[in-house]
Amino acid sequence: MGVIELFKDLTTEFASLVEFQARFYSEEACADYLFAQKWPCGFICSRCSHTLAFRIDTRRLPLYQCIHCHYQASPTVGTIMESSSTDLRKWFTALFLVSSTESSVHALRLSKLIQVTYKTAWLMLRKIRQSITQADHSVKLTGTVYVDEGKCGKPWTNNFYFEADEFPVLVGIAIDDQNQPTYVKIQMVPKSDYTDTDILPRAICAFHDTHVDDEATMTHSARVRMKRKDMRGYPTFKKAKTWIKKTFRGLAQHHLQHYWNEFCWRVNSKFHNQSPFESLLNLCAFTPSSLYANLVK
Ligand SMILES: [Zn+2]
């Protein structure tokens, strides 16, 4: 990609970027890594479950043909990279930049770094963030769960009512037996579920039904009854607001939920000592490209 000056502000990440590019030096190296993510115990035919296949190397990416039913599968089938004409190396670099830098990456910068059009970079990032959102929806908060209310948007006032450009969020944090946080979620509240001054009870019920395990003990704290220092999720929420303001200025409200989810994914990966790149690639390897197409419809 050769635009070294654009990596200047990655500072401590620069060494690992070199390492990263040395590891994923070719399309084949990326395809082999994807194969291992998709089929960690070896090839399994998605049509007949047979475990032996021929490898066909005459295409841009290798194909695996089941020796029983002759079904052909690419390592990108069922991933966000399926049917994309963009090189796997560029996809992998995008995943690296999203996962390995504190500030993430926006579409204009990504388009310059991997030399694709702005539209392509924007779509790649949307698909990556959609994968994070889908993965978040599959996780429920367990143990002791605290749900706090917060608000964001312009002008970020400390009033207890919501200004025209402000909107409420619910911050849920799960705590384990050792009093350590295990998972955090930040969810925007739909317009129909709050008034000028309050989040309605049905929003809390919806949060519980969607994001909290049935056996968890949930405590909800309304803003008017709580001091910030007593809100378990407030430090994470404060950092998330600062991260979004600094990194992604002028985001439309309808896109914001994906950025809350990206921030929470970063925090949750740290809680569980997961490698951010591997964790992100794994999410993207199990999110079909078609899912995104259906969602934007
Ligand atoms: Zn088969």
From TrEMBL:
Domain Transposase zinc-ribbon, first and last residues per copy: 26-72
Pfam name, any one: Zn_ribbon_IS1595
Protein name according to UniProt: Transposase
